[in-house]
Amino acid sequence: VSAHEGHSHEAVITIGKKTVVHFQSILSTYQEVYNHLVKKDLHGIIDLARKLSDAARQATQTEPDGAGHHMMQHVLEGAENLQKAKNIQEAQQAFASISNALCPFFKSWPNQLKCNELKLCRCKNGHSWLQPQKLSPVCPYPTTGTCSDIEEVK
Length: 154
Description:
- This protein is mostly helical.
- 55% of the residues lie in helices and 9% in strands.
- The protein has five helices and three strands; from the N terminus they run H-H-H-H-H-E-E-E.
- The chain has helices at 17-38, 45-62, 67-84, 88-108, 111-115, and strands spanning 118-123, 128-132, 150-152.
- The chain has a three-stranded antiparallel sheet with strand order 2-1-3.
- Strand 1 and strand 2 (128-132) form a beta hairpin.
- It is globular, with a radius of gyration of 15 Å.
């Protein structure tokens, strides 16, 4: 009996060649959103969210049903919520849902972190996110001040 793809066994998430270009666009825009959140700067996030939505929408069209399609749907949902964010907390929540959609892919394919010059980080509050390898870990979700208890997930 084979488990149905997308939910029961989400051990390995794959994406097809046609989706890679959209995935690259999602990752670069995601990094721009990350930089804004670290600075607590909402200005420009709406435009970035629109760009993220467009890339995710295209990815849902090129990715066949399965775990990769499921991931792209969640990225799209998060990007749409990011567009509606009225304050930094709502933007952080939307970003967290996008991160939660993307992180399992990189857990399945850790070599993709290196290829995309990213690292997967997690803070003591349980949040995970992707950030550029060359930057020191900075949590985009601090509720007060800065979050100092951050680990890189290997």
